């Protein structure tokens, strides 16, 4: 009764091709956005539990939004174009460090020409976006092997990117402005004269980024380019035969995905961490992102959000549970138990629903359409 | 002559540590050949086997067993642990996931990795434990030819000998025994093998057990070299480029790939690394693998990938 498209007639092509053709979907989304954009800031403003404390914003909502953005990027590459990548952490790092260099001013001395290229510090917004662009360029470079290899072989090729850039940002001190410890701090987050400092401001900033990119990504995958990606994913030879250029389709997927991951990396470094080391973008981050995409649902933008929430919140819950129940366990045991439970849950979910939460939701929707008379 | 002596020393050291990479890569190849699963958990299995071995050894020696009996019992205990692990993995993870695509299976082995790492450390403790099964001192060869001679670790030689025995044993097992033939049949075509009456779940158990035992052998050597500790799981990642270079389905490929990676990264570190900042051992193997992939996507010894619509 609640969720049903009966009676919603579509009279124009525009209505037929809308992102959310069903009215209930639009309403749900509007409510969700309303809560995210207006509800959360209001609650935080009036100090209403649990939004009053910084903990929820700083430790859960902020990383959730940024990792969801990165997961969207990974999903475009893995879920829509079918190219497995284990190097997402590296692309986050490229975004972060490029944005850092651009935000603090680039100085390239060319000693043999007696000349130096100097770029003054750019505004933060511009440097974040340019950081994404740098990641996109590197993404295209590391996407070139995908034209010859695929599947798990490609996964190892992207691992090469991961380890190479881990090393670059650790050893080449130019990227860290010759900081002796290798750890760097973000410039002040100054957006058009507005200084983003408090957790709620940071939250709003990330929310705007995520919303804009999610809408862009959703529209991209519905369009010509997205259909090309999906054709390549489903069967690359057949796609080539019907006239899709694999070179163009695969490299655009790498570029778009790396761009989004790069922006997410820059946000992660600037807005969430503040100051960071190369370890923040290690192989664990890549695996975590891949888990988010697979648990959430390959080839689903909404799945990226659900996957990000699940993978992020599960360890926190597992960590809190023993103390809440009053079971005395050493921190070491808790860490190990967390590993075991997390691993078993991943296996369990993969066995029960290999297509992730997104599939569960679409099954639920189908059931609701027929409810209460499923025949 | 000094340069040549140094070159030889680095080369031999690299080849020997390459043998150790091959030991880990072998476990990958066994499972990939038989079930098409890309087993990320191999490193965690090495950790589990090593911890089981070293902890039981400590316990047995402390309770007064003679050393040889303790070693035999300890290895037996670790082998039983690996058998139980293999059975559990087949029964609860790989079995239910039959016929899923490679990515899902790969992710499930990452899940298995988490479980094994957590369980191994919870049961056997999470410190670094020294293991001394093999001598760790070094020989100096050709001292009259090169000044200072060439340093060769005895442990590396032991590793090489063990890897040789292991490969010979596996080759005999695959070629000469009934189970080995069934294994090759399953590797070739699951459905056809099943339809002629080969019990697939039993075969997969055998494969995971074999991979577990290879992990145990790798753990004895690596444990002696580095001590049994959590960082041993990162071996799994080091074995990936070895696989790519050798080919995912080839046992000799794993050995040759390991040698190439071992020698290549040591030579690159010593002769190239000093020019560009050092630490390139960390990624050299991967970039080498990337180069191999671009020229020969199936690896040096892998079967050619033929695709049809």
Notes on the protein architecture:
The complex is a heterodimer of chains A (375) and B (309). Chain A has helices at residues 13-16, 23-45, 54-80, 88-104, 124-143, 152-171, 199-222, 224-234, 236-241, 246-273, 283-296, 301-325, 331-352, 356-370; strands at residues 106-110, 115-119, 184-185, 190-191, 194-195, 275-276. With 375 residues, chain A is mainly α. In chain A, the strands form 3 sheets. In chain A, strands 1-2 form a two-stranded antiparallel ribbon. In chain A, strands 3-6 form a two-stranded antiparallel sheet. In chain A, a hairpin with a 4-residue loop joins strand 1 (106-110) and strand 2 (115-119). In chain A, helix 7 crosses helix 8 (224-234) and helix 12 packs antiparallel against helix 13. The mean pLDDT of chain A is 85. With 309 residues, chain B is mostly helical. Chain B has a two-stranded antiparallel ribbon. In chain B, helix 1 packs parallel to helix 5 (154-176) and helix 2 crosses helix 8. Chain B is globular, with a radius of gyration of 20 Å. The model of chain B has no long low-confidence stretch (mean pLDDT 81). At the A-B interface, helix 6, helix 9, helix 11 and helix 13 of A face helix 4, helix 9 and helix 12 of B.
């Amino acid at each position: 009764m609640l969720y049903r498209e009966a009676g919603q007639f579509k009279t124009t092509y525009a209505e037929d091709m809308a992102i959310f053709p069903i009215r209930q979907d639009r309403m749900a989304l509007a409510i969700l956005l309303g809560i995210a954009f207006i509800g959360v800031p209001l609650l935080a403003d009036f100090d209403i539990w649990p939004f009053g404390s910084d903990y929820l914003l700083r430790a859960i909502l902020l990383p959730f939004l940024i990792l969801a953005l990165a997961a969207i990027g990974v999903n475009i590459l893995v879920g829509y174009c079918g190219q497995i990548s284990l190097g997402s952490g590296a692309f986050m790092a490229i975004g972060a460090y490029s944005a850092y260099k651009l935000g603090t001013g680039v100085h390239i001395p060319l000693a043999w020409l007696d000349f130096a290229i100097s770029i003054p510090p750019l505004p933060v917004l511009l440097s974040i976006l340019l950081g994404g662009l740098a990641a996109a360029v590197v993404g295209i470079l590391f996407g070139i092997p995908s034209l010859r290899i695929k599947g798990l072989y490609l996964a190892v090729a992207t691992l090469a990117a991961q380890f190479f850039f881990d090393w670059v940002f650790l050893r080449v001190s130019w990227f860290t402005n010759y900081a002796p410890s290798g750890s760097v701090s973000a410039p002040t987050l100054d957006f058009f004269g507005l200084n983003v400092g408090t957790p709620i401001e940071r939250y709003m900033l990330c929310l705007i980024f995520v919303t804009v990119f999610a809408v862009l990504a959703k529209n991209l995958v519905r369009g010509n380019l997205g259909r090309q990606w999906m054709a390549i994913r489903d069967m690359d030879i057949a796609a080539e035969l019907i006239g899709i250029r694999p070179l163009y389709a695969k490299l655009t997927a790498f570029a778009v995905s790396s761009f989004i991951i790069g922006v997410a990396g820059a946000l992660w470094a600037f807005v969430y961490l503040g100051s960071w080391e190369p370890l923040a973008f290690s192989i664990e981050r890549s695996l975590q992102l891949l888990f988010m995409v697979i648990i959430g649902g390959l080839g689903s933008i909404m799945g990226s959000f659900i996957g990000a929430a699940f993978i992020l919140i599960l360890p926190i819950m597992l960590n809190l549970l023993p103390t809440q129940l009053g079971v005395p366990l050493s921190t070491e045991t808790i860490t190990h138990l967390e590993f075991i439970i997390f691993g078993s849950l991943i296996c369990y979910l993969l066995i029960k629903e290999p297509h992730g939460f997104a599939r569960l939701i679409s099954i639920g929707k189908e059931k609701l359409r027929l409810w209460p008379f499923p025949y | 002559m000094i340069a040549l002596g140094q070159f030889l020393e680095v080369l031999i050291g690299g080849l020997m540590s390459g043998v150790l990479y091959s030991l880990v890569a072998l476990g990958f190849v066994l499972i990939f050949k038989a079930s098409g699963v890309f087993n990320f958990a191999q490193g965690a299995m090495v950790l589990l086997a090593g911890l089981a071995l070293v902890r039981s050894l400590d316990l047995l020696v402390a309770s007064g067993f003679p050393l040889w009996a303790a070693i035999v019992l300890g290895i037996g205990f670790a082998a039983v642990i690996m058998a139980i692990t293999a059975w559990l993995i087949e029964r609860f993870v790989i079995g239910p996931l039959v016929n899923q695509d490679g990515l899902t299976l790969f992710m499930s082995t990452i899940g298995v990795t988490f479980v094994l790492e957590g369980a191994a450390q919870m049961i056997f403790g999470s410190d670094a434990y020294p293991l001394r099964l093999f001598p760790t001192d070094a020989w100096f060869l050709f001292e009259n030819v090169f000044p200072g001679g060439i340093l060769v670790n005895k442990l590396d030689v032991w590793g090489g000998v063990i890897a040789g025995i292991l490969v010979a044993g596996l080759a005999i097992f695959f070629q000469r025994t009934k189970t080995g033939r069934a294994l090759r049949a399953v590797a070739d075509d699951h459905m056809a093998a099943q339809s002629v009456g080969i019990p697939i779940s039993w075969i997969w158990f055998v494969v995971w057990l074999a991979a577990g035992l290879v992990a145990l052998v790798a753990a004895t050597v690596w444990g002696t070299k580095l001590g049994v500790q959590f960082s041993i799981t990162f071996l799994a990642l080091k074995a990936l480029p070895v696989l790519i270079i050798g080919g995912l389905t080839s046992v000799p490929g794993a050995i040759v790939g390991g040698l190439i990676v071992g020698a290549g990264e040591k030579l690159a570190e010593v002769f190239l690394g000093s020019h560009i900042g050092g630490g390139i051992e960390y990624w050299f193997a991967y970039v080498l693998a990337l180069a191999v992939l671009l020229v020969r996507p199936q690896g040096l010894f892998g079967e050619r990938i033929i695709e049809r619509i």
